[in-house]
Amino acid sequence: MTNYSTKPREYILKFLSEHKNKRFSCKDMYEHIKNEGYDINLATIYRNVDKLVESGELLKHQSNDKNYATYQYIENTNCLAHFHFECKKCGRMVHLGTIETNEFLRMIQKKLFFTVEPQNTYITGVCNDCNRKFISIEV
Ligand SMILES: [Zn+2]
Ligand SMILES: [Zn+2]
Questions:
Q1: Contacts 24+ apart (CB under 8 A), 129-136
Q2: What pTM was estimated for this model as a whole?
Q3: Residues 67 and 88 in one domain
Q4: Of the ligands numbered here, which is closest to the C-alpha atom of 72?
Q5: Distance between CA atoms of 137 and 43, rounded to whole angstroms?
Q6: Ligand 1: distance of its center to the CA of 135 in Å?
Q7: Cβ-proximal residues to 69 (8 Å cutoff; 6+ apart), any chain
Q8: Which of 11, 53, 65, 88 gets the most CB atoms within 10 Å of its CB?
C-alpha cells in the first residue's frame, strides 16, 4: 500500500480532511494513519503539522498548560473566525455560523470588555445525535 510519491503532509491532510469534524493530537494521527497502512513516524507528523498550521491549512489548539496540542482541518477560512462546539461523547465538532459568532463576540465585549479568540475556543457539550441516543436509552 505504500506509495512513495505521497508526501507525509498529504497523508496528514488526507486523514484530517476525511475527519473534518474532529480534532486530533499528533499521537492520535500517527496511530490512525499507521493503521491505514501508511509508513509514517511520529517525528514526521510533528514536523509537518506545524508547517500546515503556518500555511493556513490546519487549525492548532493548545491546551492551557501548553503541553498538549490538537489539530483540525480548516474547511474554509471561516473556521478561524467562528466558534466550535465539541461533543464530549462522540468527539464530533459543530461549527457556529460567523454571524452568530459575531453576535456572541459583541455581547461578550459589551458585558465583560473581553475579546475572545474564536480560533482558540472549543465549547464542550453533547451533540444532537448523542442527546437523542441518550434520551432513547433512558425511555
Ligand atoms: Zn469551523
Ligand atoms: Zn455526539
A1: 129/90, 129/92, 130/87, 130/89, 130/90, 134/89
A2: 0.77
A3: no
A4: 1
A5: 43
A6: 27
A7: 25, 26, 60, 61, 62, 63
A8: 11
Q: What is the pLDDT of residue 87?
A: 95
For residue 80, the CA-to-ligand 1 centroid distance in Å is: 7
48 CA from centroid of ligand 2 (Å):
29
Shortest-distance ligand to the CA of residue 94: 1
Count the domains in the chain.
2
Q: 59 and 81 share a domain? A: no
Which ligand is located closest to the Cα atom of residue 134? 2
pLDDT above 70 for 73: yes
Ligand nearest to the CA of 98: 1
Per the structure, the complete domain to which residue 124 belongs is given by: 77-139
Residue 3 has pLDDT above 70, yes or no: no
State the pLDDT confidence band at 72, using cuts at 50, 70 and 90: very high
Taking only the tens place, the pLDDT of each residue in 87-137 is 999 999 999 999 999 999 999 999 999 999 888 788 999 999 999 886 666
* Whether residue 82 is found in the same domain as residue 50: no
Q: What spacing in Å lies between the alpha carbon of 137 and ligand 1's midpoint?
A: 30
Q: How far is CA 95 from the centre of its chain?
A: 10
